[in-house]
Design a protein that fits this description.
Blueprint (H helix, E strand, L loop, with lengths): L7 E3 L2 E3 L3 E3 L14 H12 L4 E8 L19 H13 L3 E7 L27 E2 L13 E2 L2 H20 L4 E6 L4 H6 L14 H4 L1 H13 L6 E6 L10 H13 L4 E5 L17 H11 L2 E5 L5 H9 L5 E4 L1 H5 L3 H9 L17
Parallel strand pairs: 3-4, 3-12, 4-5, 5-8, 6-7, 8-9, 9-10, 10-11, 11-12
Antiparallel strand pairs: 1-2
The structure holds ligand FNR.
């Protein structure tokens, strides 16, 4: 049996296999609208056989964008374009999900290929928001610390984003609580110096995420899975740790979260990260082993045998593919062949399917 190509069932959703396209910003939107690029890029990965295609970080409010070119889900008008994408992915036998995001103190930059620098309001940028008035690095603007009303508004923005995601036909929602963006900034003591009920103790630092989870879950029918991506460690003394992740996982499980997608890092500019093949898998493994919550493994997973081993050995339930899926949109079809799993190819491509 090839474990990677066993269906993955959560609530009322069946993924045809365990390969998920990791959310990846395309910086190809204007005013948050998806474009033909999204349809072709994401559609190709559904044609390529992925079980779930996760759309990039979609901002739940304009101030929550990393760049002016980010995908958004802050207005009802965004739904129609997204619906076109979810409809197409479904025709290919894939499922779709969207990552709801707020960039927090890392907002207001230009896109990587436009220089990736901070944008001042005069250059079309805006004032970033964060838990505390602490900049990510000297090159980053100092964010405005959110007040209670601002926090309530953020929760409401995620709620409305979740409602629109359901209207757009996504099977899965993933909340972005990783990589030093707003929810992660609240969670980590390195970026949160608040003295109110959203700072200080572990319970206080995860409060915003739990409020966002509750608001999101309330907008989702019971048959749709909710995933959360975290940075399972800050890789930095005094920061968020793997044990914090395990503790959080238990709370998320009780709150109706179905899978923890375990990435790491990016809340501070300098961290000691042992980057190498599958270097983050151990966090997915630890959370799954210690809590029983389903997990996703991501990060430098680039070949079929490696992905199969992760799922077969119970380290994670799904494998998320980032850059390898940009190099090869058909990675799942190629992996199936390599591992000897007989999967359906698109009818249009049937004559090209290699014999097992
Ligand atoms: C990313 N990544 C990312 N992560 C995330 O949670 N939301 C996002 O929108 C993005 N955007 C993004 C854009 C691009 C171009 C890249 C390359 C990466 C991180 C990505 O999902 C993944 O976690 C990492 O790339 C590590 O996995 P790989 O690439 O080693 O398979």
């Amino acid at each position: 049996m090839v474990h990677l190509f066993q269906p993955f069932i959560q609530r009322g959703v069946t993924l045809r296999n365990r390969l998920v396209i990791s959310p990846m910003c395309q910086y190809s939107s204007e005013n948050g609208f998806s474009t033909d690029w999204h349809l072709v890029h994401l559609g190709s990965r559904a044609v390529g056989g992925a079980g779930l295609v996760l759309l990039e970080a979609a901002a739940v409010t304009p101030a929550g964008r990393i760049t002016p070119d980010d995908l958004g889900i802050w207005q009802d008008e965004h739904v129609a374009g997204l619906r076109r994408i979810t409809d197409f992915i479904r025709t290919q036998g894939g499922a779709s999900g969207i990552q709801l995001a707020h960039a927090g103190r890392k907002a207001s930059h230009n896109s990587p290929w436009k220089g990736g620098k901070a944008l001042s309001p005069a250059e079309g940028g805006w004032l970033p928001l964060g838990p505390s008035a602490l900049a990510f690095s000297p090159e980053y603007p100092t964010p405005q610390a959110l007040d209670k009303a601002g926090i309530t508004q953020i929760v409401e923005d995620f709620r409305q984003g979740a409602r629109r995601a359901m209207e757009a036909g996504f099977e899965v929602i993933e909340l972005h609580a990783a990589h030093g963006y707003l929810l992660h900034e609240f969670m980590s003591p390195l970026s949160n110096e608040r003295t109110d009920e959203y700072g200080g103790s572990f319970e206080n630092r995860v409060r915003l995420l739990l409020e966002v989870v509750a608001a999101t879950r309330a907008e989702m029918p019971a048959d749709r899975p909710l995933w959360v991506r975290i940075s399972a460690t800050d890789w930095t003394e005094g920061g968020w740790t793997a044990d914090d992740s395990v503790r959080l996982a238990r709370l998320l499980q009780d709150a109706g979260v179905d899978l923890l997608d375990c990435s790491t890092a990016a809340n501070v500019p300098k961290a000691d990260i042992p980057v190498g093949p599958g270097y983050q898998v151990r966090f997915a493994e630890q959370v799954r082993r210690e809590t029983g919550l389903a997990t996703g493994a991501v990060g430098l997973i680039t070949d079929a045998q490696q992905a199969e081993e992760i799922v077969a050995s119970g380290k994670a339930d799904v494998v998320l593919l980032g850059r390898e899926s940009l190099r090869d949109a058909y990675f799942p079809l190629h992996a199936a062949h390599e591992l000897g799993a007989d999967v359906k190819w698109p009818e249009q491509y049937e004559r090209a399917k290699p014999k097992l």
